[in-house]
């Protein structure tokens, strides 16, 4: 058996183990999984549903671009505090953000951080700052992958 084929079996066996259909003893034996186990693993993987949300938020907190049902808010006072609310639960998702304007201009330099919005599983809290770390309002792009 060549290395590439063993690799595929090891990868499939890992997926099957994650689905609870194969034990570590069978994996250690480096035996190819049975046809039934492979079919069950494929079915388990096929049921995974992912969603992606992307938004662009203006400096004033208004939503420049986003999915239906999304909203955003700047808490005011030029403190760099924003919230973005999505149409479904994003509490178990990955958040990626970068400073950036919705128009083709030079975006401000600075920092951005994101976390789950306290008390709202549909929300993401965003904080922006300038290059010295001083809180400051900036437009940004945010992507949520679940």
TrEMBL record:
Protein name stated in the entry = Uncharacterized protein
Organism annotation: Chromobacterium vaccinii
Which region is the signal sequence?
Answer: 1-28
Alphabetical keyword list: Signal
Keyword Signal applies: yes
- What taxonomic classification does the UniProt entry list for its organism? Bacteria, Pseudomonadati, Pseudomonadota, Betaproteobacteria, Neisseriales
């Amino acid at each position: 058996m060549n290395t590439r084929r063993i690799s595929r079996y090891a990868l499939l066996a890992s997926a099957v183990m994650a689905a609870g259909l194969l034990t570590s003893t069978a994996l250690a034996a480096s035996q190819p999984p049975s046809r039934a186990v492979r079919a069950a693993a494929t079915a388990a993987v096929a049921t995974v549903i992912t969603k992606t949300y992307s938004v662009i938020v203006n400096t004033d907190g208004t939503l420049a671009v986003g999915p239906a049902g999304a909203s955003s808010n700047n808490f005011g006072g030029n403190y760099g505090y924003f919230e973005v609310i999505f149409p479904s639960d994003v509490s178990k998702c990955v958040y990626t953000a970068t400073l950036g304007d919705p128009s083709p201009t030079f975006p401000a330099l600075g920092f951005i951080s994101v976390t789950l919005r306290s008390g709202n599983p549909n929300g993401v809290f965003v904080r922006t700052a300038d290059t010295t770390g001083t809180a400051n309002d900036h437009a940004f792009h945010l992507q949520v992958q679940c």
